[in-house]
Design goal:
Blueprint: H1 11-18, H2 50-54, E1 59-60, E2 63-64, H3 70-100, H4 102-105, H5 114-123, H6 128-144, H7 149-167, H8 175-192, H9 204-234
Antiparallel strand pairs: 1-2
């Protein structure tokens, strides 16, 4: 989060610098009576429930797909631009709040996770979170007052949305992995920003409060991103993109 250079160095940038689904054929003629799967069961080739199949990765030959078809790139570009439009004013607001209300400023931290969470939840492809974070950072370069350092800051935050899926090699897309990434950055960021916020001068209660606010903001931003992505999918966005 950044503002004008003349105000004060962006604490969020400082911290980031210190640390970015064929169904089986039917039974042959003459075979016994056809059985019907129980409600909620998958097909013969996918015995899991539909919700479980939805969380499986889009793979080819057992390997995650790292290709970016044009439709995927266009969707990422749209999400990146939308994220940049959101983060541009948030940069300035957070910097102004940092001067007198640092605990309120850090309450906006979850916004930096939002674009990447939406991309990963909607597209379920490797590295789209980082790509959208990169694009959002490029969008705000002319407006942030910090130039291309804003790109590094956005990529740093986006990396934590991607990290849990990297651990499972993008083979599983469970909702809890999104929250795991949010929890990790919600703990790591206050540690890296300790000096920027002069947390050492506060008593233990306020230090715990700072960690709690940051964690709540990151979890809240992630929950909002999941909600937006799910509603976009129900509206038909992303449903017909290449698998």
């Amino acid at each position: 989060m950044s503002g004008a250079d003349a105000v004060r160095p962006n604490p969020y940038a400082d911290a980031s610098a210190g640390a970015g689904v064929p169904v089986g054929a039917g039974a042959p003629v003459g075979a016994g009576p056809e059985t019907h799967p129980a409600p909620g069961a998958g097909s013969e080739t996918h015995p899991e429930s539909p919700s479980a199949v939805q969380n499986r990765p889009r793979t080819d030959g057992g390997r995650p797909r790292f290709r970016f078809p044009t439709a995927i790139l266009l969707t990422c570009a749209a999400l990146g631009v939308a994220g940049g439009i959101l983060l541009a004013p948030a940069n300035w607001i957070s910097t102004l709040l940092f001067l007198g209300l640092p605990f309120v400023s850090v309450g906006l931290a979850g916004l930096w996770l939002l674009p990447s969470v939406i991309a990963l939840r909607l597209l379920r492809r490797p590295l789209v979170g980082l790509l959208v974070g990169l694009l959002a950072g490029l969008v705000i370069v002319p407006f942030s007052g910090y130039g291309f350092s804003s790109v590094a800051t956005n990529v740093w935050w986006a990396a934590f949305t991607e990290l849990p899926f990297l651990f499972v090699l993008w083979r599983y897309w469970g909702t809890w992995l999104h929250y795991l990434g949010a929890a990790i950055v919600g703990i790591v960021y206050p540690i890296l920003a300790w000096t920027s916020f002069n947390l050492g001068t506060f008593d233990l209660g306020l230090q715990i409060t700072f960690f709690a606010i940051t964690l709540a903001s990151c979890l809240g931003g992630t929950a909002l991103g999941i909600l937006i992505a799910d509603r976009l999918r129900r509206a038909g966005v992303g449903g017909r993109l290449p698998r």
